Each structure stands twice: as structure tokens, then as C-alpha cells.
Amino acid sequence: MIAGSRRLTGAPKGVALVCALAFAMACAMAAAAPSAASKPGEAVAPCEACHGAHGEGMAAAHVPRIAGQSAQYLKKQLDDYADGTRDNPVMRNFAKALSDQQRSTLAARYAVMPATPRPQAASPRPQTTALDAVQQARGHQLAYQGDEQRRVAACNSCHGPDGVGVLHAAPYLAGQSADYLTSALKSFQQDTRRNDAGELMRSVAKQLDDADIAAISGYFSSIQ
């Protein structure tokens, strides 16, 4: 782990990019369909249209890097998209078109890819804004200590030291783009993403303000 060929004149760049990604994924899915039909157990890979050939993601469109993420986490996200537990119109249609075996195969495929540093030229604009000393300190505090007054646990207590991830428990955060991490936190904060066990991420995100989200997103993004 985005409409047609009509040109989107006057549309914001981000909207146009997401529409272009959705169109690219649709084309990839259509091209892959005959193969999937003839070989039910073989996974297809339209994922590359948005997540990249090496699972590197695309920050400008809030598409996460999935290379090196645990197979269990990736499979759960695909299952959640397929059954509607996690909502995204592009991913829902993609995941529903895959068999359970195909979702498992794709998850395993991306899990063994190395989570290499993001190429700086992969995005049409800088992926992160450098944090100043105050923001860096706040991001470090939230990662390592949390904020007792706001009842926010340290991110590392679930996501591992410096957000490296915990197998079978939590995905890695280190090296994800700040754009994606920000959008993910805001989706938990606004209740538009609800596939967190025990509503844990929602309860944390709702205690953070915009400055906190920028600080923690930038902090983890800076860790390659």
C-alpha cells in the first residue's frame, strides 16, 4: 500500500495528479485482467502505477512507500480496502478485483523489497520542509516521550525505535514522506480512516494539533 481522458484545465495540481494516477491504475488493472483470469493464483501488479516499480511511493499524491513494510500489514490493508473497512475509492476497486491469494502474494512481494531512501527527484516538488530546531525537538519528544498532558503515548512505543516498525504489530514510519504521514494522521483525526485496532490511532491523532502533526511527520520523514 488514488477521470477519464478529459483534460483538467484549471484544476489544482494535486487533484490533477491524483486523477492521473487513478487513470494510470485503471489502465494497469485493465491490462492485467486477462492474466488474472487465466491464472487465478498469480498476483498482478497495477500497484506500480502509483506506488512505483520499487514500492517507493509518491509523496506529492500522498501515496506511501510500501517497500519493506511487513507482509501482514500490507495484506491487512488490502483486505480492509476490499471489504470497505478502510475507505479509498481507487484502492477499494483495486483490492476487490484481487483474490485473497493475489492480495497475499502482492503483500509478500513488496515486503521483501528493500526500503531504500526516497529518490529526491521522484516528486515534482520537495517532499518535506526542513524542520527548525523547535519543530525537530517537538517531533523527537512525540516520538520518544509522547505528551502526558495531552494523553499522547510515544509513537515509538508502538512503532518501534525511531519508527522502524514492529512485526505483526505496527508499520514502519521512518522514511515515509511527510506528505503521506500528515494525510494519514489527519484521516485518523477526522474519522475518515477507521481501521485502527481499538481506535488507538484515532484517539492519539485527535489530541494533536496541526503544529504537532507537522513536527512528527517531518521528524519521521527525515529518518532514512
Explain what this protein looks like in three dimensions.
With 224 residues, the protein is mostly helical. It has two domains: 13-115, Cytochrome Bc1 Complex, Chain D, domain 2; 133-221, Cytochrome c-like domain (Cytochrome Bc1 Complex, Chain D, domain 2, Orthogonal Bundle). The chain has ten helices and no strands. The protein has helices at 13-38, 48-51, 71-83, 89-96, 100-111, 133-144, 156-159, 178-189, 200-205, 210-221. α6 (133-144) crosses α10 (210-221). The protein is globular and about 45 Å long. It starts with 12 loop residues before the first helix and ends with a helix.
Give the overall shape, derived from the CA principal axes.
Answer: globular
CATH topology descriptor of the largest domain: Cytochrome Bc1 Complex, Chain D, domain 2
Number of strands: 0
Mean pLDDT: 82
* Rg over alpha carbons: 18 Å
CATH class of the largest domain: Mainly Alpha
Main sheet overview: none
In the CATH hierarchy, what is the superfamily of the largest domain? Cytochrome c-like domain
CATH architecture of the largest domain: Orthogonal Bundle
How helix-rich are the residues, as a percent range? 40-55%
Overall tally of structural domains: 2
- The proportion of residues in beta strands is under 5%
Which class best fits the helix and strand makeup? mainly alpha
- What is the number of helical segments per DSSP (H or I, 4+ residues)? 10
Encode the helix/strand succession as letters. Answer: HHHHHHHHHH
Straight-line distance between termini = 19 Å
Low-confidence stretches: 1-44, 121-128
